[in-house]
Amino acid sequence: MLKSILAILFFVAAISSAATKVGNGDDGSDLENLQPVTSGKLLDSRGAAVSLVESLNVRGIPGLGTLTAEIQNAPLFLSENDISSAETGWEFGAGKVFARTFATPHAATRFFPASLQLSKAQLIALHVHEALHRSLPPGIRENERIVGEITLAITTPDTTHDQVSNVVQHYLPKNKNESQTGKGYDQPSEVGYGYSHFFSGGTISNYSVSSLHSIQSHLYPFGSHQVPFGMGLNLSYLGTSSGGQMGPLGVSLRFRVWSSRGFDVGLWAEASLNTLSAEELKQSPFGRDMITAGISFRKDLEFAYVENRVSISSGGKATHDLGLIRYHYDYGEVINVKLKAGTRLGPIHLGAYAKLHLANYLRVNGGAFNYDSGRFRVFSVGPEIAYRGESGGASLFGRLLVDSTKGADFDYLGNLLGVGVGQGSVGVSTWLNF
Amino acid sequence: MVKLLERLSTGASGRGRWRASRAGAFVTSTIGALVLTGCGDFSFGPPHTQEAVRSLEGVKLIHPAILNSADPMAFGQPTYRLDDQTRLLLRFESLNEYASAIATGGTHRIELLLYPTGDLVLPEGLRICPVAKNWMMLATWRAAHPFGGDGPWLAPGGDFHPEGCQEPVLDTGDAPEEALVFDLSAWYRDYPEAREENFGWILLASNPYEVFGETSSSRSPRVRFDKYVSL
């Protein structure tokens, strides 16, 4: 009895705080004479409904994240008296109402005696239907047609996760306030630190380059939730055989687009500026400026991800003094293509990538020496293990040169900040999203 | 021409005769110059040459234990100590700039001068040989340069043509710069002229021997040649 009074008071409070339109046309006139359901077919069918939605893994479907909880945890009440209604639909039959709920999260489901005549399958559908009224996003949860379509998709025999997902995605509203697991970017900005150790790096320089530390900050203050636009900075520090020194400075413009097909599309242009002094410049063939522009496409599936990335890096020149001879390095343009794929286990990503650099040439001239590589390629592969949480993450990665023409390695690309040097590298990075 | 002279001489007596003599000299010299230039390559003897000495820019020490291609001890040194495992790559990097001015043939020579740090005596087992592969200042015992698959030497220690090796002679020259002299005339004919190749030379020593390096002001390795000069 006390529970009934409390339930009634709860519903009254819910009504007073809810939107003007209450649930599925419910005006609350049936709030009298409610008894909590503690046993019987209504509870049994709820358990079956929970099993059904869990078997379909609806938690992983955008828009249905709370459906299982709404079915499982919503209080159930049984009215003593039937209510007549001329309406038709899932909650109605033979002029009577089977069940009702308020279209707000955590509201109770109120059953009427007419529902006890329904079969188990019908009761399962009723539990799902009422829970959908409470769990779907505002704007569609009160639309009987949409809720009915989704109920049908879930309760149809032999339905699958993908079939349910397709129906739900078709009806989900397309607006800026959708969650990151759906569309748009909640936290596109990022700050982080990265470290790479190179193998046999920079042997064409006066000193070998063994490592690179970088601090990066990519901020997206402009644009919208779905199309953020911003800029990035990347400071680097080189570890060399002669000690440490400042590495290239990266300044970038970045543009992200969340496509209607669920792809994360990124556009960027980055200028890598050498920070070496005039004296330091002479001791390295890497002291050049370059610009890289590219586009990336990423698709996150439930248990996998795929990313394609294409970019082009500009050519440039550098000089390198060795003894009494000044050598001139002329780097040609480079097209970079990267394919990455892997599996997702929640926030853990396990994957690998393959990357191809197709360079126009590397020319070296000085004194009586001249060298022209012509067009050449550098092909590398590597693993990537990452933890990607909502607010940040970390990753371990490697890069191994597996094929190249004319004995080329990463030194030939003259891109310290982008691909590093030598025969490959291993590294770690960590970041915060906001 | 005669009538011109006559007209010039029939003017006022003094002035007319003065004009005639000037005109005559002018005409005579003009005719003479035309005749002489019409005879082809006119010269009054062999072209003038002048001895030129230039320091080598390309000097690189290689040794099996020097693995760093840019090891600062392998170049830019005041002296280099050689032995059977330590060799010196040498090249006159600017040779191409002087190619058209270098006099060859006859008594003209092109020579390499090296200055020992010790007494000037003819060392046994010291010779230079023409290098057979292009190299740069990042050369090591194993590779001529770090670029491309053809960077490594075919044989560690440098690729050279043994048949072109030269042993030195002593050149007391103008004291106090006493030097070992290697005659490069045949090398110049066979490589820069015939093949348009300038890969320089490699200095080999069977016994320990020390020479001055490229940073020495007056005893750096250098080439000496006769250069055509205009009067």
Number of helices of chain A: 7
Quaternary structure annotation: heterodimer
Rounded to an integer, what's the Rg of chain B over CA atoms?
A: 28 Å
Which band does the percent of strand residues of chain A land in? Answer: 35-45%
Largest sheet of chain B: 5 strands, antiparallel
Topology pattern of chain A, helix = H, strand = E: HEHHEEEEEHHHEEEEEHEEEEEEEEEEE
Strand content of chain B: 15-25%
Largest sheet: spatial strand order of chain B: 1-11-5-8-7
Overall average residue pLDDT of chain A: 84
Low-pLDDT sequence parts of chain A? 5-25, 175-182
Largest interface, chains and sizes? A-B, 26 and 32 residues
Order of secondary-structure elements of chain B:
HHEEEEHEEEEHEEE
Q: What sort of overall outline of chain B do the alpha carbons produce when their principal axes are compared?
A: elongated
* Fraction of helical residues of chain A: 10-25%
N-end to C-end Cα span of chain B: 35 Å
Question: What does it look like?
Answer:
The complex is a heterodimer of chains A (434) and B (231). Chain A is an alpha+beta fold and 434 residues long. Chain A is built from seven helices and 22 strands. Helices cover 19% and strands 43% of the residues of chain A. Chain A has a twelve-stranded antiparallel barrel. A four-stranded mixed β-sheet of chain A has the order 1-2-6-5, sandwiched between helices. A four-stranded antiparallel β-sheet of chain A has the order 14-15-18-19, with no helix packed on it. In chain A, a hairpin with a 3-residue loop joins strand 20 and strand 21. The longest helix of chain A has 16 residues, at 2-17. Chain B is an alpha+beta fold and 231 residues long. Chain B is 20% helix and 24% strand. Chain B contains four helices and eleven strands. Mean pLDDT of chain B is 82; it is low at 1-6, 8-14 and 37-41. Classes of the chains: A alpha+beta (434), B alpha+beta (231). Chains A and B meet through strand 18 and strand 19 of A and strand 2 of B.
